[in-house]
Write a structure and sequence with these properties.
The complex is a heterodimer. Helix content of chain A is 90%, strand content 0%. Chain A is mainly α. Chain A has a domain at 2-64. The longest helix of chain A is centred in the middle third of the chain and has 117 residues, at 66-182. Chain A starts with a helix and ends with a helix. By secondary structure, chain B is mainly alpha-helical. Chain B has one domain (3-302). Helices cover 70% and strands 6% of the residues of chain B. Chain B contains ten helices and six strands. Chain B has helices spanning 3-9, 17-21, 38-43, 73-96, 105-126, 128-151, 165-187, 189-194, 204-253, 258-302; strands at residues 28-31, 34-37, 50-52, 60-62, 65-66, 69-70. The N and C termini of chain B lie far apart (69 Å). The chains are: A mainly alpha, B mainly alpha. At the A-B interface, helix 1, helix 3 and helix 4 of A face helix 3, strand 6, helix 4, helix 5 and helix 6 of B.
Chain lengths: 200, 305
């Protein structure tokens, strides 16, 4: 602002000096009364008045109106450029973020596919395992049942054999009893045969 | 209604006063059989020591003499214009201080003028780097010329001060002083004046003869450009107002023939309205041209050949 005022002061001095020089010449020699009606006639009073009014107007407006307005317009221009730059940056950031999210979505889709594949494989494996276990269990159950059947059968056979032997023994005892009772020689031979079979 | 009463009704009575009194017989012209003094007509488009008032308020007001200086109509108008510009733009500057856009149609209108001149006239002519130093001066120049031009279109406000050579010459001289001052500040006194000669690769012998001639031509051209600047504005404004005055003068000239007077009045008013619209355009155009050329000349001084 000081520089502007200095320049304005120099302008004023230069203007006044120019008029001072002009005032000494015949330029201002026109008759004022006639000159007022003739637009081409030179009138020093109006010229100096205009110079003073215009100079003061330039100085006052530069200080109080147009100088501040130029600054305000510059500030507005700077602000708008800053806003534009920040908007462009925000736009670039948003695009980068969008790209990141797009990549993430693509990544997550792959991940989902992997998870689903793994789950499917796991499920298949588990199913196979369960089937195998079930087969094993069924097999062992069947084997156990067969074993039990076999054991029951054996037991039944043993019991049958035991019963049969008992019956045979009882029958044989009864028969032997009767023969022993009838013939003592037979009894002694029988005893000796028995003793012999036991000792062998 | 007599001729004088009809003319007085339209505020044109003083056109007839000298004629009826028989004054200025050497300046009388014959129009439609009646004598009309053209010297009186020109008073309405040139400077004077009295302010013409509406008929109902009286004849006119004599302007005073202050400190030995006779105040004239143009001087009053110039001060009024300066005050008006101050009243308009200082509040605008206060509103714009924050750098945010102003609110309101009127303030936006004023701002659009400023921004247009800055972005479309001053910056392209002078360059972005130097433009802001000259912007306040060129804005002031534009609005001072514009409002002085428009002042002539407002009834009873007075004629346009830009219709006088003294006013337009001072404005052109101010542009010249700004041009030379800023040029000498940038390039130095010698550098500025020598820089007026275009740089040419001439043989030494030719350069000795041609460069001084070119220097003289360029300097004379520099002066002529500014003289033309002032004369262009003066001629446009004065001629427009004179044509308007003559158009209205037809009404007075035919005031004694009632049938003719009615027809001429109707036509004159219509033509005057159209010419006023043209004058409105010319007022803006001439202010723009003056500022535009001043900006170009300053730009040429800032960026030599």
């Amino acid at each position: 602002m000081k520089r502007t005022q200095g320049a304005a002061a120099r302008l004023f001095v230069a203007t006044c000096a120019l008029y001072a020089v002009c005032a000494q010449t015949t330029i201002f020699a026109a008759e004022e009364s006639e000159a007022k009606l003739d637009p081409l006639a030179w009138r020093s009073d109006l010229a100096i008045w205009t110079a003073v009014v215009f100079f003061l107007l330039v100085v006052v407006l530069t200080k109080f109106a147009f100088g501040p307005i130029v600054k305000a317009l510059d500030k507005r221009e700077r602000d708008e450029l800053d806003r534009l730059a920040s908007t462009e940056k925000a736009n670039a950031d948003a695009k980068a973020l969008l790209e990141l999210y797009r990549q993430k979505i693509e990544g997550s889709e792959e991940e989902v596919r992997n998870i689903l594949g793994a789950a499917k494989a796991d499920a298949e494996r588990r199913a196979n395992q369960l089937i195998a276990e079930a087969k094993d269990a069924a097999q062992s159950e069947r084997e156990r049942a067969v074993e039990e059947i076999r054991a029951a059968s054996d037991a039944a056979l043993n019991e049958l054999a035991a019963k049969s032997a008992e019956l045979a023994a009882n029958l044989a005892g009864k028969i032997i009893q009767e023969e022993i009772d009838i013939d003592p020689s037979k009894r002694e031979r029988l005893i000796s045969n028995a003793v012999e079979s036991l000792t062998r | 209604m007599t001729k004088r009463r009809r003319a007085a009704f339209l505020g044109l009575d003083d056109l007839f006063t000298p004629t009826l009194r028989g004054d200025y017989p050497d300046k009388q012209n014959t129009m439609s059989g009646e004598l009309v003094n053209m010297g009186e007509l020109s008073k309405h488009v040139s400077d004077g020591v009295e302010y013409h008032l509406p008929y109902i308020l009286g004849e006119s007001v004599e302007l005073p003499t202050i400190c030995g200086i006779q105040i004239t109509r143009f001087m009053v108008v110039e001060v009024a214009v300066a005050l008006l510009i101050f009243i308009l733009f200082v509040p605008l500057a206060i509103k714009m201080r924050s750098g945010k856009p102003v609110r309101g149609r009127f303030w936006n209108l004023l701002e659009s003028f400023l921004v247009f001149l800055r972005n479309e006239v001053i910056v392209p002519s002078i360059g972005k780097k130097d433009a802001d130093r000259f912007t306040p001066y060129l804005w002031t120049l534009f609005f001072f010329i514009l409002f002085c031009n428009l002042a002539g279109l407002i009834p009873w406000f007075g004629a346009s001060p830009t219709g006088a050579l003294a006013t337009t010459a001072v404005l052109a001289v101010s542009a010249f002083v700004v041009l030379v001052g800023s040029g000498m500040k940038k390039f130095g006194v010698v550098g500025f004046w020598l820089g007026q000669v275009p740089k040419m690769d001439l043989p030494f012998v030719l350069a000795i003869f041609l460069k001084p001639m070119l220097f003289v031509i360029e300097i004379v051209g520099l002066f002529i450009k500014h003289v033309v600047l002032s004369v262009r504005l003066l001629a446009n404004m004065f001629a427009g107002h004179l044509v308007l005055a003559v158009m209205l003068g037809f009404i007075a000239a035919t005031a004694d023939k009632i049938a003719l007077w009615i027809g001429v009045t109707f036509a004159s008013v219509l033509i005057s309205v159209a010419l006023n619209l043209l004058e409105l355009f010319v007022a803006f155009l001439q202010a723009y041209i003056f500022t535009f050329l001043a900006a170009i000349f300053i730009g040429m001084a800032q960026h030599q050949h």
